[in-house]
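Why predict the complex rather than its parts? Because the way molecules touch one another can change local conformation, and only a joint prediction can capture that. The input here totals 453 residues.
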Amino acid sequence: MSVNPLYHQTSSRMLEELEWIQRAKADPEHFAPLYRKYHEQIFRYVYQRMDDEEMAFDVTSQVFMKAIKNLHKYEFRGVPFVSWLYRIAKSELYQAFRDNKADRTVNIDSIQVTEMIEEFEQDESEENKQRLLVCLSRMKEEDMQLLELRFFEKRSFKEIGEVLEITENNAKVKCFRALEKLKKLFINRNE
Amino acid sequence: MKHFKINVGRRRLSSEYIQAKQNFDSVLKGVRSSQPGIWKSPWFYGVVGMTSMAAIVGYYFYQTQNQINETIITQNNSAKEEVKQNLATLAVNVSNTQVGYASGEIAHFELKMEAKEKRQEKRVPETEAAPREEVPVLIPVQQVADVPVETEKKVDVKKKAVRNSLPSISGVYNGDISWENFKNGEVFVGEGLDVRQFSIQYTTRLGDKTISVKGSRIPDEIVSELENLGLNQTIFITNVIAGDETGELMRFVSMDLNLKFK
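Output of the joint prediction:
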């Protein structure tokens, strides 16, 4: 599994980032380096869960606007700055879904579908692929979030924990349970 | 039930494309336009609120202080005038009788003299009665006490003071009394009894005041003074003396009235 280099940074990079944050707290114009650094990452996170590209760009802009407005509340607690941005993105996304501006969408590569069927030790037939998609569409939001973060976006348990504000171990357990639920649903549907 | 729309193999956007869509200026513009005005900040409300409160309290305090000062000045003036008048009266009295009196003592004495005269009219024959002119018109109470007839009369009053009926104003003997009932009422001791005099004690801004009053009604000067003061306070009505048809004087117990304006 690949590691997100923007998330897992060296301490010198994190110190540099803290300096940017301090300067941005004094003057929002100094937020520019943080915006450039994390824009793509936040956009991909948003677009992964949306169908409409333009709407995803709008929501991403909203995320950064909210971050600048609330930057004075941010305190460094050993967690990367981007996890704070992810939390804002998550709340803005759900706000967009509540306002019916966008539909909740799950975007998967066909390779990821195949990998998941392999995980369930089933045939990689077209029928099973369709069945998996149906099962995925019937998962609960909470479980889907975990599956997306872990299996479709390939994030570490540490990162998942920080985004969802749970411990790394808890993220591990929850991801396993979500996968088990999907497997149960898939196998039951197969029988 | 279906919760999500599933997209498989959607075209992946390139990093260059996403970077090209970056627009930090519009984000900054959005932040600045969505910032609330200064009048919406809690600081603004706090400062304005505190200033308004301070202004209101200051104005109220200033007004109250002015009123107090005005009252004190008025009372000082009236007190000075009263002293001047008293001095003038005293000077006249001294020149007439060579004796000084306080107004309360004069009233008290006049009351005694009236009673004495009535009694003498009944008991002593007309021929033996001392002519009125022989008795000094103004004799201090202390001197009257030395005269045997006067002593006898005092004892008489004391004996009668044990009388059971209670004096009252508008039916109130003790406790709370409304301002309206107080100012419109008079000291009443019972049917067939005529209140001749009483003393009233009340508090003013300059201290306690005790005034000896002739008759049963509270004088208008005292009423207006209490009204101007507008203070809920305890009024003591003491030394209530009343007489019956025969002219016999009786002393009644004192009253404590709690004056209530509102």
